[in-house]
Design goal:
Length: about 350
């Protein structure tokens, strides 16, 4: 028998107010197919958590699997009451013999932040006998997948700059609620797929969030040692050192994200050992010479001003969000947040910039 589900009235009100902008893919004409969520082949031997055509909670009909990770699965579903398409994220209630808490934390954070522009709309959340679940706004494929769809596997300066600018807004909102994300990376960034939100970045996956502030806004006391949380490729040097994370560590992860989007890959892409990755990150932070043709990691990238400010941040205070965004103006140029992004113009700008860089390096 199902346990009572947890639903947020604010989220329901937000859903009603945004009925016209809900992400029904059939109604969207300006969204390129390449950024729409894609069905994944379901392994019949993998025991999926939900079945195709199953009607979950007597309302949402499962269409297919669109995402899968170590903590659970994400399904595309149709709301039989409203005719909308939604995403349903589920995880087993019990993991390795213990009660799973990751999605419970995510549910609480999403509820608190409803109404903020860079947070997915939450329609319902709760638990059944065997699963924790979140039902939320359907979004594009993630930014990492979009970058890989580019012929040069890079994004343009203006698109990268605007992604970083919007993510800073998203992190500012989260930090004001007293949370740090602890897993900022391209795979956790998407865009809306409705007519009015297709240029709005949405920050996802709050499963690793942590409260770093007290209710009065003061920083919590820092632990001398903290467990590793995050993804090796994107965490800060401090996280590699098992130090307590703060809001600045989210920003450092964002810098690495921007570098990867615009350059095409991070210098430590091929490394697996955390200590080796940490060593290269320290070299980047110290602006040491890079082995190879480039004099340093940021030569010709126009990220150097942003990087210098990021690496100078004090982990005991919140970052200067507006100043960080000012450093991105050189990338964004005269583009507005609502101007077309690379994937809406066949990546022409990214390809042109890549050709220029290739010719200048000859």
């Amino acid at each position: 028998m199902d346990s009572p589900k947890i639903e947020d009235e604010t989220a329901q009100q937000q859903q009603q107010q945004n009925t016209k902008t809900c992400s029904n893919m059939e109604k969207v004409s300006k969204i390129p197919d390449l950024v729409l969520p894609r069905m994944k082949k379901m392994d019949p031997d993998a025991s999926p958590l939900l079945g195709i055509d199953e009607v979950f909670k007597k309302r949402w009909q499962i269409q297919g699997l669109i995402g899968k990770g170590g903590y659970g699965e994400i399904y595309l579903a149709s709301d039989t009451k409203r005719g909308e398409e939604v995403a349903i994220k589920v995880e087993p209630k019990i993991r390795r013999g213990k009660l799973a808490k990751r999605m419970i934390l995510e549910q609480k954070a999403l509820m608190k932040m409803q109404g903020k522009p860079h947070v997915p709309r939450l329609y319902a959340s709760g638990y059944t006998e065997n699963l924790n679940f979140i039902i939320m706004q359907l979004l594009s494929i993630n930014i990492g997948e979009i970058r890989k769809s580019s012929p040069c596997r890079k994004l343009s300066k203006s698109t990268t700059g605007r992604i970083l600018h919007q993510t800073i807004d998203a992190l500012h909102d989260m930090h004001q609620f007293g949370y740090i994300h602890r897993d900022v990376k391209p795979a956790n960034m998407c865009f809306g797929i409705g007519e009015t939100n297709r240029h709005t970045l949405i920050l996802l996956d709050f499963g690793l969030i942590r409260r770093y502030k007290k209710e009065n806004g003061e920083f919590r006391s820092l632990r001398s040692k903290a467990g590793f949380r995050g993804t090796h490729r994107y965490v800060s040097v401090r996280v590699h050192s098992k130090l307590e994370q703060s809001s600045t560590d989210d920003i450092i992860s964002l810098l690495y994200t921007g570098y990867e989007l615009m350059i095409g890959e991070l210098p430590w892409k091929s490394l697996e050992r955390g200590d080796e990755i940490k060593k290269l990150k320290q070299a980047m932070q110290n602006n040491e010479e890079k082995v190879g043709n480039n004099k340093n990691y940021f030569e010709n990238s126009q990220l150097i001003g942003f990087a210098k400010l990021v690496f100078s941040l004090d982990p005991t205070i919140d970052p200067p969000y507006s100043k960080l965004q000012d450093e991105l103006k050189i990338l964004i140029g005269n583009k507005k947040m609502d101007d077309p992004y690379d994937w809406e113009d066949d990546f022409k700008e990214a390809i042109e910039e890549n050709d220029i860089n290739d010719n200048s390096s000859k």
